[in-house]
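Structure (tokenized):
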């Protein structure tokens, strides 16, 4: 699993490659980079409920690490940021957030972990063909995985 530093650095790199840069966001650059770091780390906030239960990994890398949740977070927070910073575009905010959250998922996908990926959660049960299930091609995700 990638470290928070790696997720943040990837987020900063992608933001600096972003076609708009800091233009189009009516916000101070320091605050903007703070939001970039927060968005890059957002899927890992799922460990917080587990802290209250004494098992930080209980909910880690489940639904919060899915493409559906990435879209929900990007669209929702894009709308909130658009309302807060009225000179900015909702589409620019949402697309930037989707790229940053998606980069987190992609980086986690290519690091070693022994739990199945939840990109398609809650629809994972519908993938019966190994060609449809990403973990079938990366056995380190599910060492005992046998397609049905």
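Design, position by position:
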């Amino acid at each position: 699993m990638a470290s928070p530093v790696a997720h943040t650095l990837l987020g900063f790199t992608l933001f600096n490659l972003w076609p708009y840069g800091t233009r189009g966001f009516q916000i101070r650059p320091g605050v903007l980079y703070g939001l970039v770091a927060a968005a890059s780390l957002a899927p890992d906030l799922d460990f917080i409920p587990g802290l209250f239960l004494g098992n930080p990994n209980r909910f880690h890398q489940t639904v919060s690490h899915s493409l559906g949740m990435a879209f929900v977070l990007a669209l929702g927070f894009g709308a909130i940021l658009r309302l807060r910073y009225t000179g900015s575009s909702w589409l620019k905010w949402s697309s930037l957030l989707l790229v940053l959250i998606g980069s987190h998922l992609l980086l986690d996908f290519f690091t070693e972990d022994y739990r199945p990926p939840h990109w398609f959660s809650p629809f994972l049960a519908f993938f019966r063909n190994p060609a449809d299930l990403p973990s079938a091609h990366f056995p380190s995700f599910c060492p005992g995985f046998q397609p049905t």
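Reviewer-requested clarification: The chain has a mean pLDDT of 78. Helices lie at 4-17, 29-41, 47-52, 67-84, 90-109.
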